[in-house]
């Protein structure tokens, strides 16, 4: 699929800073675009039943966008529309000289939600006119079928007297969302439990917290740390990292704590610009 938009940032490289715009050399009146939403069905035949039991589904495709870069004719009326060898090298040096994925933001014509994509450049092609380069075509691959939101930050003063409720608006309805969580208590407490009632009463527990201690939990990477460097916090942890189901999440806590959730959510959107 071709990308269109007012501007784009790929890692630290912003097109407009180099006098570039997104374009296409194809007919854009009508297009049939693949959104990378193909998924596998997980099912199993049990006994002699002729109909399989549906166990779930998982995505296996990725977004594969194409970006065409040309020089912005409105940036300078005297601009040379052709790319020199030095200009090509400078652009490709920045866009192909990194490992893994880089964050790409597209600034759309109509603002809805600021989203970004994790991309890597898989191939580069030149569009030529009269034997000279007028466009640089980047074939890219995303890390998943999804676009991603900016970070959400929610801080709550939780207490045993009332349950904590908030909503995970993820568009991936098959998977848990794994947030970064910080937990703070103003007083020393024993046997802290945080129960996600919506997730079959999934319990995250700690044997103790000191007054003012801050526990930092990265559920995505299974990392846990304490603001007290000498403490081996994992010895007091039941190894149930906090996780969020799609939609409503209702938590019950055993003691008064401050808890902060930080996460970004996947968006099933493709490129709508």
Question: How would you sum up this structure in a few lines?
Answer:
With 273 residues, the chain is mainly beta. Helices cover 4% and strands 45% of the residues.
Write down the secondary-structure element order: EEEEEEHEEEEEEEEEEEEEE
Structural class: mainly beta
Mind telling me the C-alpha Rg? Answer: 24 Å
Supply the number of helical segments.
1
Unreliably modeled segments: none
Sheet of most strands = 9 strands, antiparallel
- Whole-number mean pLDDT: 85
Describe this structure in words.
The chain is mainly beta. The strands form four sheets. Strands 1, 2, 3, 6, 7, 8, 9, 10 and 20 form a nine-stranded antiparallel β-sheet that branches. The protein has a five-stranded antiparallel β-sheet with strand order 11-19-13-16-17, with no helix packed on it. Strand 4 and strand 5 form a beta hairpin. The longest helix has 12 residues. 22% of the residues are buried.
């Amino acid at each position: 699929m071709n990308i269109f938009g007012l501007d784009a940032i790929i890692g630290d490289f912003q097109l407009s800073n180099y006098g570039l715009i997104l374009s296409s050399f194809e007919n854009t009146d009508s297009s049939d675009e693949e959104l990378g939403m193909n998924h596998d069905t997980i099912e199993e035949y049990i006994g002699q039943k002729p109909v399989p039991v549906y166990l779930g589904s998982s995505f296996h495709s990725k977004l594969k966008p194409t970006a065409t870069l040309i020089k912005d004719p409105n940036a300078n009326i005297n601009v040379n529309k052709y790319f020199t060898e030095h200009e090509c090298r400078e652009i490709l040096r920045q866009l192909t000289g990194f490992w893994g994925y880089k964050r790409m933001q597209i600034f759309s014509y109509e603002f809805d939600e600021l989203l970004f994509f994790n991309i890597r450049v898989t191939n580069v092609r030149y569009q030529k006119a009269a034997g000279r380069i007028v466009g640089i075509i980047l074939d890219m691959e995303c890390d998943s079928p999804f676009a991603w939101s900016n970070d959400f930050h929610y801080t709550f003063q939780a207490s045993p007297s009332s349950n904590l409720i908030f909503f995970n608006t993820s568009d991936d309805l098959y998977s848990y969302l794994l947030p970064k969580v910080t937990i703070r208590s103003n007083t020393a407490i024993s046997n802290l439990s945080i129960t996600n009632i919506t997730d079959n009463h999934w319990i995250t527990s700690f044997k103790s917290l000191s007054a003012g201690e801050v526990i930092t939990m990265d559920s995505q990477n299974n990392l846990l740390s304490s603001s007290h460097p000498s403490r081996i916090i994992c010895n007091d942890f039941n190894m149930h990292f906090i996780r969020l189901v799609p939609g409503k999440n209702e938590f019950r806590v055993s003691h008064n704590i401050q808890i902060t959730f930080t996460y970004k959510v996947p968006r099933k959107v493709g490129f709508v610009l």
